[in-house]
Amino acid sequence: MDPATTAAPIQSDCETEPHSVWSWWPSWRPTSMSLLKTTESKILACIQNDLWARFVTLPNQDRIWTLTLTNKVFHKPAAAKTPLVMVHGFGGGVGLWIRNLDALSRSRPVYAFDLLGFGRSSRPPFPSDSAKAEEQFVNSIEEWRQSVGLENMILLGHSLGGYLATSYAIQHPSRVSHLILVDPWGFPERPQTQTEENRDQGTEVVKRPSPPRWVKVIATVVSFFNPLAVIRAAGPWGPGLVNRFRPDFKRKFEDLFDDDTMTQYIYHCNAQTPSGEVGFRAMSESLGWAKRPMLQRVHLLPPSMPLTMLYGKWSWVDNSSGYKVVQIRDQAHTRVLLINEASHHVYADQPEEFNKVVENICNSVN
């Protein structure tokens, strides 16, 4: 089947709920993979270009939910261009790219997939060791690439997706034509507690926006449970909890949906059996810090690999890591760009500017 010519937004594959010791929870939680599929279908109905939505099966039989988009009118010339592959962040899924997919697929194929353990992809066990958990994520991306048949790609990752995209690019540099990191998680080392003495030395401290309330709440929970356990434990109150702590998701997409479609999507993505969360928790000291900070390894990227780091100017993610990367790579093929009036979800806060910047980067490749 040719992805450039086939539009199949409806997936006919049979989906079953993963079996676990928590299999009694679906009767308590108002969610299921079927409800996630239905909510996502409503989101994807907004897409105007040709869409091919399907599961890509890996050698170990895990399945990665994948979207391929091509320009409805000019897909043949675009097919010769290096495809853009988009990797979502923690707790997200392909539906969050809805403001970007059409615009970015005008001149080249665009792929977006649910990370292993998230969204509609398979939810296998993850090891508790941070390096092994990271390896499982990265291996699944490489096996996905092989299964799809991509020789190389422009790789874009947001938040956790940015961390994993960097790890992938270090291990498989020949496959990445340009690495784009959007508000990437897990780069800086966890700072030591600042003493009063240091404060009194007159060192200028640049204040960052305080993390949003939902970040602080989840950060407290994560030290005891999986990061989103509170959503599942809330049972029938879970959807309301997402609406309460993430009202911004509804606002970001309110011109597309005048109801709770996007917050319902976030809920259904994260109310299923935890899997990717377990992998994330293994890799993290807390919500904001990685056990294996990427700043310690970013020098392993080939100097010739172009790297662009995009940050929301209002984001709670510290963009100083981006400038440290520039120094570490000795400015070789490395840029840091700030998007005005954008927070952590840059692609949804300022989609037109984001799409324009990403399209320009893609055009610099071919």
From TrEMBL:
<dbReference type="GO" id="GO:0004622">
    <property type="term" value="F:phosphatidylcholine lysophospholipase activity"/>
</dbReference>
<keyword id="KW-0378">Hydrolase</keyword>
<comment type="function">
    <text>Lysophospholipase selective for N-acyl phosphatidylethanolamine (NAPE). Contributes to the biosynthesis of N-acyl ethanolamines, including the endocannabinoid anandamide by hydrolyzing the sn-1 and sn-2 acyl chains from N-acyl phosphatidylethanolamine (NAPE) generating glycerophospho-N-acyl ethanolamine (GP-NAE), an intermediate for N-acyl ethanolamine biosynthesis. Hydrolyzes substrates bearing saturated, monounsaturated, polyunsaturated N-acyl chains.</text>
</comment>
<dbReference type="GO" id="GO:0042171">
    <property type="term" value="F:lysophosphatidic acid acyltransferase activity"/>
</dbReference>
<dbReference type="GO" id="GO:0055088">
    <property type="term" value="P:lipid homeostasis"/>
</dbReference>
<keyword id="KW-0443">Lipid metabolism</keyword>
<keyword id="KW-0442">Lipid degradation</keyword>
<feature type="domain" description="AB hydrolase-1">
    <location>
        <begin position="83"/>
        <end position="189"/>
    </location>
</feature>
<protein>
    <recommendedName>
        <fullName>(Lyso)-N-acylphosphatidylethanolamine lipase</fullName>
    </recommendedName>
</protein>
<dbReference type="GO" id="GO:0005811">
    <property type="term" value="C:lipid droplet"/>
</dbReference>
<comment type="similarity">
    <text>Belongs to the peptidase S33 family. ABHD4/ABHD5 subfamily.</text>
</comment>
<dbReference type="Pfam" id="PF00561">
    <property type="entry name" value="Abhydrolase_1"/>
</dbReference>
<dbReference type="InterPro" id="IPR029058">
    <property type="entry name" value="AB_hydrolase_fold"/>
</dbReference>
<dbReference type="GO" id="GO:0005739">
    <property type="term" value="C:mitochondrion"/>
</dbReference>
<dbReference type="InterPro" id="IPR000073">
    <property type="entry name" value="AB_hydrolase_1"/>
</dbReference>
<dbReference type="GO" id="GO:0006654">
    <property type="term" value="P:phosphatidic acid biosynthetic process"/>
</dbReference>
<dbReference type="GO" id="GO:0016042">
    <property type="term" value="P:lipid catabolic process"/>
</dbReference>
